[in-house]
Amino acid sequence: MDDAPQYNRVLLKISGEALMGEREYGLDPAIVDRIAVDLRAVHDLGIEVCVVVGGGNIFRGLSGAATGMERATADYMGMLATVINSLAMQNALEKLGVPTRVQSAIPMATVAEPYIRRRAVRHMEKGRIVIFGAGTGNPFFTTDTAAALRASEMGCDALLKGTKVDGVYDADPVSVQGAKRYERLTYRQVLAEDLGVMDHSAISLARENDIPILVFSIYEPGAFADVLCGKGQYTTINGED
Fold first, then answer.
1. Above 60 in pLDDT, residue 2?
2. Are 23 and 11 in contact (CB under 8 A)?
3. 185 and 234 Cβ atoms separated by less than 8 Å
4. CA-to-CA distance for 24 and 45, rounded, in angstroms?
């Protein structure tokens, strides 16, 4: 397959847990720096990049709600956690010389720009990486749904989900020996089989806007650029049977 990039503008979704490394909580600076190196490699290919980062390494709204906290309040706390992660990723990228902007769906002008769609598009056109913090800005929506929403708003050619494993499996490959890995799935299969790679709202939104989802291992150095050039191990989710 040709090594040239197959996409012009993409969104990368990274879970908060991916930033923990081997820790039980918080950020592992070495992991953040390595992901920043992968983002720079894609940026250097001339691809326009935006990012949505989760906040589960600091606070997860559903867990807070499960302990008796009001769900909306817990979700807002989770959104603030994503802004912390976004600023960490911005810092790592700018240490590498990559111009980066953080836009927050919850206004906090001291640390981030407010989310403005046309401004975000312009940043990417000028070669800046844009990191979207605070999810959708609304409770009851996950950062997966925020990723699908922003990918749709930005007119992205693909949504990439960086996970702990190299694609979508029919069971957890870490705990289930012989779990089957999928090379390609349709949106309908993911929803019907409840494969859990992203929540149903995110899958449905990607399907409505015909945005392919590429699932790969964020822990594999260089995998982000490889996937965008059609190389390496990953699962493609799209509308084709």
1. no
2. no
3. no
4. 34
**What's the pLDDT score for residue 241?**
60
Is 71 in a helix, a strand, or coil?
A: helix
- CA-to-CA distance for 50 and 147, rounded, in angstroms? 10
Residue type, 95: K
Bridge partners, 162 (sequence order): 14, 216
Bridge partners for 235 per DSSP: 215
**Dihedral (C-alpha) 15, 107, 33, 149: value to the nearest 10 degrees?**
40
Where b means 16+ CB within 10 Å and e means fewer, 81-93 reads: bbbbbbbbbbebb
For residue 3, give both structure tokens: 């090594």
Output the CA–CA distances (angstroms, integers) from residue 11 to 98, 171, 186, in the order listed: 16, 26, 19
Domain locations in the chain?
A: 9-238
The two tokens of residue 228 are 């965008």
Q: Quick one: which of 109, 1, 90 has its CA closest to 50?
A: 90
DSSP-derived letter for residue 179 is: P
Instruction: Determine the average pLDDT of the residues in 135-148.
Output: 97
Residue 10 belongs to what H/E stretch?
A: strand 9-14
Q: Pick the residue with more confidence: 224 or 61? A: 224
Averaged pLDDT, 195-216: 96
Reported CATH class of domain 9-238: alpha beta
Q: What share of the chain is helix, strand, coil (3-state, %, to 5)?
A: 40, 20, 40
Mean pLDDT score of the chain: 94
Instruction: Read off the DSSP letter of residue 180.
Output: P
